[in-house]
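Escalated from tier 1: 5-O-phosphono-beta-D-ribofuranosylamine holo job.
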Amino acid sequence: MLKVVVLVSGGGTNLQALIDAVEANTITNAEIIGVISNNRNAYALERAKKHGIEGLCISPKDYDTREAFNDAFLCVLNRMKPDLIVLAGFLVVIPEKMIRQYENRIINIHPSLIPAFCGTGYYGLKVHEGALKRGVKVVGATVHFVDEGTDTGPIILQKAVYVEQGDTPEILQRRVMEQAEWKILPEAVNLIANGRIEVTDGQVIIKE
Ligand code: GRF
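Tier 2 regenerated the structure:
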């Protein structure tokens, strides 16, 4: 059984997609053992509670230095002994020490087709604003492993979504979530839980 910890900052619809998939058995061999938020008021923590999942809050604001926060954060996470860490709308920079310790065991969902509209400054609605401003006709989402860069780790799954006339960033964000994020994030967790993912030379291979 793969022990999964989900890190969140906001609404937690991607967390919900994971919880639903575990409950519906579309994710097998995995269990969500905890949810960590940097924001006490994140609705994601409510979602965890409703499903009997342990929810914790740890925020950089409660520490004098970033280093002190990073140490405490790693400590909280290590105590949970996760096999996989899922960043589902987590807006805090992951400490390098954590990335090294959990190499190829941290995944992130990003609401664009990487390498478009990703990297520093592209988060939340800014991704969709960028896509609309450029006038691209196809957008989408990416699940990737987390490495030391921003959105640079090995890509696990991607799914494309069409832009429609009259889209606003909010409308596009919602469509990308519904048609891509909520599908490929559970799918990636299921592949990992069932030993189907291999990383070789920075490339993900999905085994039959
Ligand atoms: C999603 O768009 C995700 O791709 C991004 O942050 C958002 C989180 O939404 N990284 P939610 O909290 O899962 O509803």
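The domain at 2-206 is CATH 3.40.50.170 (Rossmann fold).
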